[in-house]
Design brief:
- The protein is an all-alpha fold.
- It has one domain.
- It is about 90% helix and about 0% strand.
- Helix 1 packs antiparallel against helix 2 and helix 2 crosses helix 3.
- The longest helix is centred in the first third of the chain and has 35 residues.
- It is elongated and about 45 Å long.
- Keywords: Membrane, Transmembrane, Transmembrane helix.
Length: about 100
């Protein structure tokens, strides 16, 4: 009985990490679209500036959490997808930082 309860908790963590990775990805897609099409919405700019730092810091944390969940629970679909999304976002952020430095 206890093992079943633990499995349910792990599945909730896996889904939560996946949803956070998806929302993080959607935020950066939104930032990209507003930048490319030069949308000048006041509320969008305010939300963009308020969320940029937390979302940028969240991406590597999600990679770490996804990796820990894969290590603990094995390769479930949720963990692998979350790790892939978060790793791509993190690599994109690192590439942009390196591009700015050079």
């Amino acid at each position: 009985m206890q093992e079943s309860g633990n499995k349910t908790i792990f599945m909730k963590k896996n889904k939560m990490i996946l949803f956070m990775s998806i929302f993080n990805m959607l935020f950066f897609i939104w930032v990209y679209i507003t930048h490319v099409f030069e949308m000048k919405w006041t509320i969008a700019g305010v939300m963009h500036e308020m969320l940029m730092l937390p979302m940028t810091l969240l991406a590597p944390v999600l990679v770490l959490f996804s990796g820990i969940q894969i290590y603990k629970n094995g390769r479930s679909t949720y963990n692998v997808i979350a790790l892939s999304i978060s790793a791509i976002i993190t690599l994109g952020i690192i590439a942009l930082f390196l591009k700015e430095l050079m």
